[in-house]
Amino acid sequence: MQPKSFSIGIDIGGTNTVMGLVNRRGDVLAQEWLLTKEYETPGMFIQAIKEKLDPVIAGFGKEHISGIGIGAPNANYYTGEIVMAANLRWKEVIPLRRLVEAAFGLPVTITNDAKATAIGEMTYGAAKGMKDFIIVTLGTGVGSGFVVNGQLIYGHDGFAGELGHVIVARGGRSCGCGRRGCLETYTSATGIVRTATEILERLAHGQEIPEQKDWLLAVWNAKGSVSSSEIHKAALAGDPVALEVFEFTGKILGEVLADMVAITSPEAIIFFGGLAKAGAFILDPVRRHMEENLLAVFRNKVNIILSGLEECDAAILGAAALSW
Amino acid sequence: MQPKSFSIGIDIGGTNTVMGLVNRRGDVLAQEWLLTKEYETPGMFIQAIKEKLDPVIAGFGKEHISGIGIGAPNANYYTGEIVMAANLRWKEVIPLRRLVEAAFGLPVTITNDAKATAIGEMTYGAAKGMKDFIIVTLGTGVGSGFVVNGQLIYGHDGFAGELGHVIVARGGRSCGCGRRGCLETYTSATGIVRTATEILERLAHGQEIPEQKDWLLAVWNAKGSVSSSEIHKAALAGDPVALEVFEFTGKILGEVLADMVAITSPEAIIFFGGLAKAGAFILDPVRRHMEENLLAVFRNKVNIILSGLEECDAAILGAAALSW
């Protein structure tokens, strides 16, 4: 029997869900998306996905599609379930694999969204040829995939690689997981907004003299909030508050990564996701603080790099690669 | 050709070096030891090992011995070297494999002492049949071996698994590695002595009212220092300072292990080494604080257990297993 030509990859994020049809060379031939948070129940969400994908499947021919791979928060490769995902509205255990198989009549494989991204990077991206690396996804939350000796770490129960829930500050910021001080409350897109908000509130209350030329403070004064992309934009303009936000964020992330290097000794740490788009603003302080905190034997050995794939593509390609 | 019947395992620790001849069933048929710190140079140390082992090798017949496996601090499986070991007097890079091969004329394999112990546990001990576990050795320092999917994590450069040098307190206690706040400055045999000393100094300076019935304080008052075995002995007698030391130590270790579980999701964490002999005094607080700090998805899943092997045997067996 001839191997099937296409595979479908679906990346479910806390904010957006992107999906695409992929060929074996890694070209994304069709792409769709929707807003994850708009759907009250997993059933309504899967129905919406089906409406997006049915025309694509019909166009390329269901008989040529090997299956569907899904990357999703807290998705378990072993059980096919999503379990207590902090960044999704559906808090119960969701038998995602079974539901999607029933809806499409195609074989379904699921894993953690960050692990799917790691597979995408390993197959088509910056980690091609690497056997030991860490992928860190900086999006709504912080995800990670640890690859050791060419294999993803799934762990005993399939839930390994939760870097975002390593505790970096005892009694620190409250996290969607119900605990306090998790990495993702500081170094995600939402985390940097919390950091900026803390600094701007302090400035606005006059505990420090604000310089009126500060653009981020002006945004804050105008509408009472700032977004992660406004923080990035402000940093590009040299805004001191925005630069302080990135320095603070990079310090926390660099310190944690120094500890992680001591555990798995990766060749590289690859950043991916919305916050990674800030490029040198985040990478430079991460690199500096990681090096300062590394055990001597690891210094100047670990590359900190950006994903080699387009944001949407990496997760889709990784998810799709699951189903080959 | 018939497989050779025996293998030699050498475990080099910061304090003691133990070595033995092992058969394929895992029986330690001959055993020797020496004090690691007594030898000024690696050459003198290897000469002393040779004097201990030559009669053993002659007795069992060199032609029946497959090789020598060595577990040592900071030993690198890939390069055969010991590199900047914090707990050895020899700070330079030592080409241990080459030196021992030259001395004995037998093939030599080396790895980190904790990794050798992990191999021993996996082959003969408490981790038999486990594919995902962490071994934590609580001795002069803190070592670790992370096993994932049945394989030890060596990492890109062979130095993975340095749990003892995860930083648990920024700017905390100074460590032999040149940094501050490493786990092993708190949760090793030497770490608990530092903790006890801090508490006893505070008591002795009268910042708190000492109860004269406290045995550990009496020891301190008599000789100005306490040992880790005296702390254990005091805990057995219900001494409040000793119990406080174990509670403090278990809290730090439990918190770090909760983070490690989030990364590799092990089935079990196995404790080994001098401090592990304190049994429930250390395991109970570790278990309690780990559970309190675990991400919900990992709670009540990870066993905290003691090594299933005699202290000397585990490291010897693990080291010896390297050379089969």
Low-confidence stretches of chain A: none
Instruction: Please give the CATH class of the largest domain in chain A.
Output: Alpha Beta
Distance between the termini of chain A: 14 Å
CATH superfamily membership of the largest domain in chain A, which one?
ATPase, nucleotide binding domain
> Which fold name is given in CATH as the topology of the largest domain in chain A?
Nucleotidyltransferase, domain 5
**Would you list the SSEs of chain A in sequence order as H and E?**
EEEHEHEHEEEHHHHHEHEH
Give the strand tally of chain A: 10
Largest sheet, spatial ordering of strands of chain A: 3-2-1-4-5
CATH architectural name of the largest domain in chain A: 2-Layer Sandwich
For the residues shown, what is the average pLDDT of chain A?
Answer: 92
Q: Number of helical runs of chain A? A: 10
